[in-house]
Amino acid sequence: MIAKAGGRNSLASSIHDLARHLNISIGTVSRALNGRADVNADTRQRVLDAAKKLNYSPNQSGRSLRQGATHSIAFMLQPHPGDQQYGEPFFIPFLIGLQGRLAESGLDLTVVMGAPGDYQQERLRRVVETRRADAVLLAWTRREDERIDYLTQVGFPFATLGRSRSGGKAYPSLDLDFEKAGSDAVDRLVARGHRRIAAIRPSLNLNFGHLFLNGYRKALKRHGIEVDPSLIADGFINEAGGYQVTPRVILAKDRPTAIIFNNDAMALGGCKALAEMGIRPGHDIAVTVIVDTPLCRYFSPALTAFRPALEPMGRRLAEMLLASLPAFAGPEGPRIIHEVWPLELVARDSD
Amino acid sequence: MIAKAGGRNSLASSIHDLARHLNISIGTVSRALNGRADVNADTRQRVLDAAKKLNYSPNQSGRSLRQGATHSIAFMLQPHPGDQQYGEPFFIPFLIGLQGRLAESGLDLTVVMGAPGDYQQERLRRVVETRRADAVLLAWTRREDERIDYLTQVGFPFATLGRSRSGGKAYPSLDLDFEKAGSDAVDRLVARGHRRIAAIRPSLNLNFGHLFLNGYRKALKRHGIEVDPSLIADGFINEAGGYQVTPRVILAKDRPTAIIFNNDAMALGGCKALAEMGIRPGHDIAVTVIVDTPLCRYFSPALTAFRPALEPMGRRLAEMLLASLPAFAGPEGPRIIHEVWPLELVARDSD
DNA sequence: CGTTTTTCCGTAAACGTTTACGAGAACACA
DNA sequence: TGTGTTCTCGTAAACGTTTACGGAAAAACG
Questions:
Q1: A36 CA to C5 C1' distance (Å)
Q2: pLDDT tens digits for range B241-286
Q3: Could you tell me if residue B348 is inside a domain?
Q4: Which residue range forms the structural domain that includes residue A53?
Q5: Nucleotide minimizing C1' to CA distance for residue B16
């Protein structure tokens, strides 16, 4: 048992207190507060005033229990193992957009942290089974994603940041166009005279890594350049991973003149490896990063990267989730929306 | 109204289902599940098995309502305005530690986002008044902190990352020793021959800025160096702030040979300003940053900075919060603990 | 004035738990 | 056998809401 938060009687003016104070029934109070039609205008005003005066606001557990809805959306924030130093600054602007839009519909956003590494399955079950949220938002989707399988199986509403092959098209999803970014990156490098272009991506079967590589391959073929497997490498999605795997492509028979990293942390680790081998990004080799973060901007040389519009994406995904929920959808009923957003090239000094 | 999450009847096996399935009363089921003594060992096992089989887990709203406790702790995450690009990577390792320790005591951590800029007061009220958490955790404490005033006034349990003058010593707090860091930074610079040392800190009355300046001043005096007000500047706690305010100290009558920044984002902005003035950190001027982040490491030149042990701090603050709650305190009863943790110097290339 | 409609409000059930209380059964003990 | 103790469980109330239902009073209408 836990202490009653704040002492139930100091803070907690219940609807009964309010009713007693006004000499009316709790039913009427509730109806007044919830804006129902069948309550006299005067009465409503009196209730509203008293609520403000007594500092009343409804107990969330009570509401949730009665209504079967928590009025909150859970975002599953999952730190990658070994990512401690770096964190997920990626998500903050995204979360700001998310929270802003949800608040407009009276929903709370709660970010639920998982322990690094367990890929959320356990935390997710917990959120769902104890009904702590009305819907969840997933990120870092994988090609085959057990979380998506689980949620669709139990019929819990959700939306994803990122696509997946799991679960069909039954849930809203918003993703970045990693395929186009990979392709654009290659185009740009080819235009600058490169033919030996390496690609480094995370080794988990994260879907964006897959998409990126698709784009990379297609673009190379389009330019009549053979795809050389020795120029493609997978590594852990963190700095150590980039550091570890970059030498592998450098030591290929015919050394690449450019590397595209699919992740900023990996790029940073990769640049460290390059430095140790005496290879200078921007001089001896071109480096491009697919998802831009502040780190890319401040690194030296500043890394050319593809930038997402995180805050608008957050807003939009919230909107898409709402549109899929019967209770929030417009008159035409719930809709499942899928969108793919572009990444914008930010040319800097590393290529 | 919102859709009953997942459809109440698909997911939700209630305790009644379980009881019916086992042909015993819900009371017994509950007692068995909660490990109470007055239930037969066989019965308990049967209940546990059935619970697993039927995938039962108690409805959180029901529990909370009955117990007057939500079994969750809220961390108020507050993005600073204009901080969109940068985010709060600072907090991620901290949150990991926090969540780890709380989970060990069966508590959930929910991060509640506020809109940038409103300093949380509204969100905080909402969390407290609707009783969405059993306690809250505050960060970015200010010298006079209305959030702390509010929480102490209404008697809601909380702890803070950072100190404040508000609320006395009535709540657990964990802070970094910014005073010592400021002092150490000066010591180090003086030892390296600097006498004209500037200090740049956030303009909000954030408490750490105050502490930092204290340490800075004391150390200067200790070394017999006069504190020159024209070498001290305040700015918005973001990159733009640093960029805007740094020239002010540079253009002082007697140009400083070193700058201590009290915030990494401000340092980055400051370095940009320096670059535009043709002043190279590490060559023409020494730069020290008080709170280290990955950005400091990757910047060029890599910035000498003072580093906190974020993840252990998160664990520890969770522990301190628990120790202050009657329901979780040991047999000796609740204790209010205050701790101040050191920052560790990481010498790099900028000084 | 009688009848119908409308307006407004109180009553009570329900949401899913936990837990105080009491009672029956089994057991121990003299 | 009678009495007291221990185990084990069922009953029912309570947590704070929302809402279906019905009814009294007021208003409208003929």
A1: 20
A2: 999 999 999 999 999 999 999 999 999 999 999 999 999 999 999 9
A3: no
A4: 13-58
A5: C16
